[in-house]
Specification:
With about 260 residues, chain A is α/β, with parallel strands linked by helices. Chain A is built from eight helices and twelve strands.
Amino acid sequence: MSTLVIQDLHVAIDGKEILKGLNLTLNTNEIHAIMGPNGTGKSTLASAIMGHPKYEVTSGSVTLDGEDVLEMEVDERAQAGLFLAMQYPSEITGVTNADFLRSAMNSRREEGDEISIMKFIRELDSKMEYLEMDQDMAQRYLNEGFSGGEKKRNEILQLMMIQPKFAILDEIDSGLDIDALKVVSKGINQMRGEGFGCLIITHYQRLLNYITPDKVHVMMQGRVVKSGGPELAHKLEAEGYDWIKEELGIEDETVGQEA
Amino acid sequence: MTVETKLALTEQDVRSYSTAKQEPSWFAEYRVQALQAAEHLPMPTPDKTKIINWNFTNFPVHTVESKPFASLTELPEEVKSIVTDEQKSVYIQRNNTPAYLQVSDELTAQGVIFTDISTAIREHGELVKKYFMTNGVKTDEHKLASLHAALVNGGVFVYVPKNVELVEPIQVVFLHDDAQASLFNHTIVVADTNSSVTYVENYLSTVPEGSGIVNIISEVFAEDNAHITYGAVDVLASGITTYVNRRGIVNRNARIDWALGLMNDGYTISENVTHLVGDGSYGDTKMVTVGRGKQKQNFTTKIIHWGKHSEGHILKHGVMKDEASSIFNGIGKIEHGATKSNAVQESRVLMLNEKARGDANPILLIDEDDVTAGHAASVGRVDPLQLYYLMSRGISKQNAERLVIHGFLAPVVNVLPIEGVKKQLTEVIERKVR
């Protein structure tokens, strides 16, 4: 079993503090959902864990099986087992999806032990079929001209090809129609199990109808303010966030405010 | 302004070279006149690049003797990888020596002329006379053009007769493996009415450093309804100052597609002008380059619209590293009367180091109202968010940069018509950006 531990994490962007002491522990074989209204720091958490160049960790720690993640370069974090399905994946002209994926997979292997092209193509074909993606998407340039839904499927395709220990899914459900949402959920559920942990960041309960989380956390003002089981998500769906704010005496849940 | 230049070669030198090559007298006279003109004509003036201290006129010897190749198996490895066994029509020039020629049965049967320029001058005088520096590049344009005409010592002649559509590409390799050699190559590619041809040339130095100069002119003629695809990959060694002028004349409903991989390591002035003469003519220029070291280069690509409904597209992508500096001039010119024409261009420069420099100058000169035109230009660094995305999948920073750069140059690499040349260009890019 692997464990990702986030302790008292403070993160700033352009000098403005967004995360204000966030704590979270995620084990493999668990799926956690992070919910919360807009502007509470959910996406910042995802970006900070992966090492986005604009986000500055001012204090706190992130460790993966005791290893200091924050000391690692972005590629080292990925090599260590972290994966972030991004909300806005970059478009890269001239680099085909297939070439990119093969580079990503080979980056985890020793030189001379690269994945064989046949094996790679077989795996890619079967996973694209599973995600109901057009086969020509393998030869299209990475995310270039992809629709919103295609980009999200492509993130899940990468997840399934790379098979990380921990995946963070940053609003993977935003902009998806119900069919695409089902396909994306199917991909994530296939990953579920021993050796895989997942942090799903979402505004909506909708995705959690297809992927039942083990734990649900609510973020406000840059930290986790409430945690519970899947029933918490249902309650949020039915009653919204006001009862939590009331319970905790929060007037404005966004990060600009102090509790 | 006139500039007097003491030239290395005299009239007598030029005449005796012409005699040794058994050229007809009209060509000898042509050379002599050009030499005289060269003495007082001004240098070309590439926009935004000062070439006053560049060496375009001093070189150790006019011609060197090299050994021809008896068969393709004798080729050096670097050339073998470009010329594959499937290649049916290929010409190899070694320094200044015609070194190997293989013409496919298809070409011969259809009356295609594919030979070195010297043979063409002797055996196809009328055709050469019609096209050699008459309607394309003119000898009196500037000193380097006239010097070129006087000193031509290599090149190729390709003539595709009417209604002949060639499927297989014609391949030419200019091998530079003698550091002393200078190249004054003249290439003529003519596709007569309703014909089509794909021509791909390579300039390849296998010596690390050259002491000669290179002054190349290509004239490319697409007659009515003809289609020429012209690919070129230049990989000339440092130390060599290159002037390369590739010019196209596109007649009615004809088309020229250029794919130029300009990978010289020395100072280079590259001029690529396409005249869209005929109504409905089409010109497409794609160009990529990688500059490194302290190299200075100027790339001027220009499409001039004369014909109605003519369509011109320019796409240039350059990568600059170390202290290399390059000027990218892209010019779309629509002459009065060229109604319904469309001029589009895009120049993008990627800088890898603080001291690298790249200037993209998109220029539209429009003398007609009823046209459309557009341009886009950018100069910048590798996008940190692209690197972040690639690295977040485990790809190292170095490999991520490599992927982005290859992707950036892919639009030209991908359209090169010969696999071996495509692969070679990819490898050259790899070597240069590392």
